[in-house]
């Protein structure tokens, strides 16, 4: 499963300097982080709508879009996916309530 995300991360990195007219990823990078973040937010809302509509097929598609745009945002911020996965590993086995409390303390 993480092979897919690793390949996506590599593809996104390779398109970072591409011609925005020929690459959607390059066009997002050219528009800057605010546009990338806004697009991520739009995809999150669309995933929520699909989930509330109980449209499984649509939710799968929107979840893929959401992950894709998150990966673009991470790349723009120079945050490797490995660091995000390491944070998830660190949290594994910890109560979500306890973990959240540790961030606000």
Query: What's the domain count?
Result: 1
The total strand number stands at 0
Helix and strand composition category: mainly alpha
Assembly annotation:
single chain
**Main sheet: strands, sense, barrel:** none
Please trace the helix and strand order, writing H or E for each element. HHHHHH
What is the general shape? globular
CATH topology: Helix Hairpins
Residue fraction in strands: under 5%
Arithmetic mean of pLDDT = 93
Unreliable segments (pLDDT under 50, ≥5 consecutive)? none
Distance between the termini: 34 Å
Backbone CA Rg: 16 Å
CATH C-level class: Mainly Alpha
Name given to the CATH architecture: Orthogonal Bundle
Helical content band: over 70%
- The CATH homologous superfamily is called MazG-like
Count up the helices.
6
Describe the protein's architecture and organization:
The protein is mainly α and 105 residues long. The chain has one domain (2-104): Helix Hairpins, CATH 1.10.287. 79% of the residues lie in helices and 0% in strands. The protein has six helices and no strands. The radius of gyration is 16 Å and the shape is globular. The N and C termini lie far apart (34 Å).
């Amino acid at each position: 499963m993480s092979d897919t995300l690793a390949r996506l991360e590599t593809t996104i990195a390779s398109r970072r300097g591409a011609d925005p007219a020929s690459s959607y990823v390059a066009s997002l990078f050219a528009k800057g982080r605010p546009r990338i973040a806004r697009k991520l937010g739009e995809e999150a809302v669309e995933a929520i709508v699909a989930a509330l509509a109980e449209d499984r097929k649509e939710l799968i598609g929107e979840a893929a879009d959401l992950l894709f745009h998150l990966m673009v945002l991470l790349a723009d911020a120079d945050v490797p996916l490995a660091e995000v996965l390491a944070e998830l590993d660190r949290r594994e086995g910890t109560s979500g309530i306890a973990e959240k409390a540790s961030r606000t303390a």
